[in-house]
Amino acid sequence: MAIPSYLHGKRYPFIFSLSLLILAVTLVLMSNSQYSTFFSFSSLPTSFTRLRQIPITSSLYFPPEPQSPPPLPPPIIADVAISAADRLPPLPPQSKIQETPIVLPPEDQLLRDDPPSLRPPPAEIQETAIIRPPTDWAAPLMTRGEIEIDENLVNLKWKVCEGPVAVDYIPCLDNFKAMKKLKKNLKKHMAHRERHCPTPSPRCLVPLPRGYKLPILWPKSREMIWYDNVPHPKLVDYKKDQNWVVRSDDYFVFPGGGTQFREGAASYIKFIEEAVPAVRLGRNIRVVLDVGCGVASFGGNLMDRDVLTMSFAPKDEHEAQIQFALERGIPAILSVIGTQQLTFPNNVYDLIHCARCRVPWHEDGGKPLLELNRVLRPGGFFVWSATPVYLNDERHVSIWNSMVALTQSMCWKLLTKAMAPAGVGLVVYQKPTSPSCYKERKNNDPPMYTPLQRCLSQLPPGASRWPPLWPERLSAKPLGLPPTLFVEELFHNDTKYWSDVVSDVYLGGLGINWTNVRNVMDMTASHGGFAAALEHMPLWVMNVVQIQEPDTLPIIFDRGLIGVYHDWCESFSTYPRTYDLLHSNFLFSNLPKRCDIIDLVAEMDRIVRPGGYVLVQESKEMINKVGSIFRSLQWSVSLYNDQYLVGHKSLWRPEGGEVQR
């Protein structure tokens, strides 16, 4: 029967015709390779309202390269940064919190081209069924519940860590057995300062320093901290002429000085701005990396400019410099430029700073500087303030000449070489935005190190693009987000979801005293929605993207936030007692099978300060287990709506006994 006559004989020709049209469109879409993955993605839920509910596969997540947005706008020198108070809505009435800004990250590829060295071999990364939050969101009425105690877990017996570094024990950086086995040539390249995690993970609890007190609150903590909380006076004598830190009765006081800015970081930062007008702090420059940061006074002062700085240094003879920084409430992490890559994505930092950071950039074929090139955004700036820039003796001139040859081979542009009134100099380089320079070289192997080409990371497509100015950058579409409406919708839904949860649940409904919270870690950062929702608060967030999860860290940097890659089967590279709040979203349910939840809870106890919090969103079954372990550590725990666990850490430490495995 012909189709027209068939339709004429039906009672509802219009409905039948519409059905045929829908069927035809569906068949066309399924035949198109760009959408075939979408229709074969059997794990998609029926509602697409929450990004974190969908385990995104690589085939969906890596579409064709994004189109190039407009190029980096020209500098506008006489510009004024918009304050957080001018652009953000008021806080919910339940919370009594001051207002202050926070952080974000960058760039272009979702797939990590150069995975961090801590990434385990593929065979060790075991697939797990991803558990996500509920699909539909509505502001809930918060009700207290009861945790069903697991007797085996709540009765765990713990012991205190022992040894000369017990109070400041960092398992993956204090593994002395592994350090002794390193070859001498590796120690020369700082391999002994890198991560060497013990197996199995230790289950001891770090003791408190004698006389430990609850930390001084921000912003006063930027200027002074309790001596007893970080009782390491060596820097006072070692750096007494450079105004790093001085002791005053029961306090350490931070005058704001540094090796290259003894008169204070504020005047030094002003000198940088005057030397390079294109550097507009708090506008086109939002995320900064400070190498060999000391006590992080440079990054602490940049917070006044709406700049978020990741300060890092190794655990070395500069005793506890990162611990000082975190106790002050300034973002920092233990790391070193040695034999392994830094745990940051490619092409993400707007500016990298080194002030006498003691890194020999020109040595080993320039590998240290090539690592900076990898993480620096195309068009980004490298500010180097060091004696080879301005001293003219034979040794310093030789180093300077080596740096000139190396930076030219990397196609870096020398923007300025300037001297400050204090008698120190700096040089500012800019990374190229086009690969044409690489192609035009007669020899693609840089002159100092033949295999250097393998280490020189490729510029991403559309490298001339730059994120929007801050603060628009936080809510704008990230440059690294794939150009598909579906993924864009998921990203914006994720942002809205965490904005709703933070305002409707976290700030007013869980009994957390947010006025005491400064250092925050999101252990399951995804796209940085949790950190973005807290941007108006006087705190900062370390966003952690797990190595077995989709690589969203470049998107986090694109938004103007900061973060690192990490494997939560291992200890984090921070000192004990350095964070006020740890947040996780279905972390325990999604742990690889090679991890143990007891080890993870012990690590969380190590990181959190006494008086600090953990905020865990999980299934009720997992909350019963995790809550029981926290109770064995004498934490107070509360359950809300059978899905939010809040733990509050006490000063308790065990007197003896060993944990049961």
Automatic annotation (TrEMBL):
<dbReference type="InterPro" id="IPR004159">
    <property type="entry name" value="Put_SAM_MeTrfase"/>
</dbReference>
<keyword id="KW-0472">Membrane</keyword>
<dbReference type="InterPro" id="IPR029063">
    <property type="entry name" value="SAM-dependent_MTases_sf"/>
</dbReference>
<keyword id="KW-0812">Transmembrane</keyword>
<dbReference type="GO" id="GO:0032259">
    <property type="term" value="P:methylation"/>
</dbReference>
<dbReference type="GO" id="GO:0016020">
    <property type="term" value="C:membrane"/>
</dbReference>
<feature type="transmembrane region" description="Helical">
    <location>
        <begin position="12"/>
        <end position="30"/>
    </location>
</feature>
<dbReference type="GO" id="GO:0005802">
    <property type="term" value="C:trans-Golgi network"/>
</dbReference>
<keyword id="KW-0735">Signal-anchor</keyword>
<protein>
    <recommendedName>
        <fullName>Methyltransferase</fullName>
        <ecNumber>2.1.1.-</ecNumber>
    </recommendedName>
</protein>
<dbReference type="GO" id="GO:0005768">
    <property type="term" value="C:endosome"/>
</dbReference>
<keyword id="KW-1133">Transmembrane helix</keyword>
<keyword id="KW-0325">Glycoprotein</keyword>
<keyword id="KW-0808">Transferase</keyword>
<comment type="similarity">
    <text>Belongs to the methyltransferase superfamily.</text>
</comment>
<dbReference type="GO" id="GO:0008168">
    <property type="term" value="F:methyltransferase activity"/>
</dbReference>
<keyword id="KW-0489">Methyltransferase</keyword>
<dbReference type="Pfam" id="PF03141">
    <property type="entry name" value="Methyltransf_29"/>
</dbReference>
